[in-house]
Amino acid sequence: LNPAKCSFGVQAGKFIGFLLTHRGIEANPEKCQDIIDMRSPTSVKEVQQLTGE
Question: What pTM, to 2 d.p., does this model score?
Answer without folding.
Answer: 0.44
